[in-house]
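Reviewer 2 asked us to include a model.

Predict the structure of this chain.
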Amino acid sequence: MIRADVLVTNKNWKKNIKVPNIYINKKLKKIYKRTNLFKSNNFNFTLLLSGNIEVKKLNIKFRKKNKTTDVLSFPFHKKDIMLNLLKSKELVYLGDVIINLNKILDKKKLLTKITLDKIWLHGFAHLLGYRHKINRDYLKMKKVEKFRLFINT
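Predicted model (structure tokens):
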């Protein structure tokens, strides 16, 4: 099974997604049912629904970039370790994903559930060890992001 602990620090999220924890975990349940990727063990990660100030602080502290962004991911494991953990039977903590509502609204003017799904799945793919700087990882990452096609049905 795969579960997310969803934390909300920007109250404006609830204007767009009434109960974020239930929304995200329903999507994860659909992914679990439709793919074999997570069948062998239990996965958990934290999803923080935030805003500009928090994201900028984290970006400065951990990435040394003095700017805000739409999504940050902090994998708990390195990719080679993650690949082994995907095969194990134990509970695996994947890491943290932080999504910035303000940055999304700046780009889109409106938060849709499809936009939200694309962004949190992008961050989730990073937790699995994928990086878009490497071509073959970019293609695999796009496959993970396409989970949104069947979680919205």
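The chain has one domain: 2-151. The helical segments are 13-16, 20-34, 52-63, 79-85, 101-108, 113-127, 135-145, 147-151. We have added this to the supplementary material.
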